[in-house]
Write a sequence for this structure.
């Protein structure tokens, strides 16, 4: 388990991380979501030790994280950092060297990774000759080449086509399934919704919500929708919270299923009901609500 505990960090007068705390559990994919400038990259850089916090701690299994453990984390930084003139496979072997890995084994492992990521045919091309999406795949391979004990990935899916997203996801899932904690930031909520086991939503350097997808969805206020052939303005008098109203269509929050059913019963005495039921929330709704 990697834990960040009460992290604070300022740049000049801007206080960008404020008592930020969350866990990255082993064997889980944790999505780190927040708007531009929320503090995701700053947090990741502090976890990796490339930036210092003003206060707070990064723990590994409850103890201060060590340089030795950090060296074995697979990191994909926001500022991508491969050597443009070096071929992808040589790059991977070079990174393996830095981790003291056997060159022949690293080359084999590198080719396997490139194969899985759909980049094997370009293995010997200089990185600068790859398309942006393929450079991104090469970066993912670079984060994985030393069999990392944990993964911290800054926007790993940006710029990837849907097929590449799927293969990358499989590869990351394998790392998590092997027991490593995996944290990735993303703006793409649909992806986060599909990919991650746990979510941490931050805004202005503070955690606004965290938990599993189901836990977050359960925190959302239950909302119902009613569509009838007659005007539904009377719903306002039923003691529920009307969120949207447009003639025969109304969306409202109720404290209980019974209260919502009472609205349905009333609607049926007034005319034909075309549709009635609870509204299924998406993470997108939660995200908007959390950041509102
Ligand atoms: N080296 C720095 N010097 C000054 N300000 C910085 C520095 N690094 C980050 N900041 C500021 O800290 C805040 C948080 O930035 P950070 O990059 O962590 O956000 P983010 O959530 O990763 O955003 P994005 O999704 O846009 O990448 C921003 O206001 C940013 O301008």
């Amino acid at each position: 388990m990697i834990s960040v505990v009460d992290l604070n960090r300022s740049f000049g007068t801007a206080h960008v991380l404020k008592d930020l705390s969350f866990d990255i559990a082993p064997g889980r994919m944790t999505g780190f979501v927040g708007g531009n400038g929320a503090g995701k990259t700053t947090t990741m850089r502090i976890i990796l030790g490339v930036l210092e916090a003003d206060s707070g701690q990064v723990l590994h299994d409850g103890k201060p994280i060590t340089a030795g453990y950090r060296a074995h984390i697979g990191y994909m930084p926001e500022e991508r950092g491969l050597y443009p003139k070096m071929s992808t496979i040589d790059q991977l072997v070079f990174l393996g060297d830095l981790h003291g890995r056997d060159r022949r084994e690293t080359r084999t492992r590198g080719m396997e990774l490139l194969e899985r990521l759909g980049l094997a045919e370009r293995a010997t091309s200089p990185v600068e000759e790859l398309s942006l999406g393929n450079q991104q795949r090469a970066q993912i391979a670079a984060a994985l080449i030393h069999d990392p004990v944990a993964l911290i990935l800054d926007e790993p899916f940006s710029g990837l086509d849907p097929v590449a997203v799927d293969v990358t996801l499989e590869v990351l899932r394998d790392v998590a399934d092997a027991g490593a904690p995996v944290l990735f930031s993303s703006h793409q909520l649909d992806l986060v919704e599909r990919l991650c086991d746990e979510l941490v939503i931050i805004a202005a350097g503070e955690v606004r919500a965290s938990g599993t997808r189901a836990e977050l969805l359960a925190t959302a206020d239950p909302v119902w929708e009613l569509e009838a052939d007659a005007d539904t303005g009377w719903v306002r008098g039923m003691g529920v919270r009307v969120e949207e109203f447009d003639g025969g269509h109304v969306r409202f929050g109720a404290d209980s299923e019974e209260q919502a059913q009472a609205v349905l019963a009333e609607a049926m005495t007034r005319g034909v009901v075309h549709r009635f039921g609870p509204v299924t929330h998406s993470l997108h709704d939660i995200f908007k609500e959390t950041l509102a």
User: Anything to note?
Assistant: The chain has a mean pLDDT of 91. The longest helix spans residues 162-177. The CA atoms of residues 238 and 263 lie 7 Å apart. The longest strand covers residues 14-24.
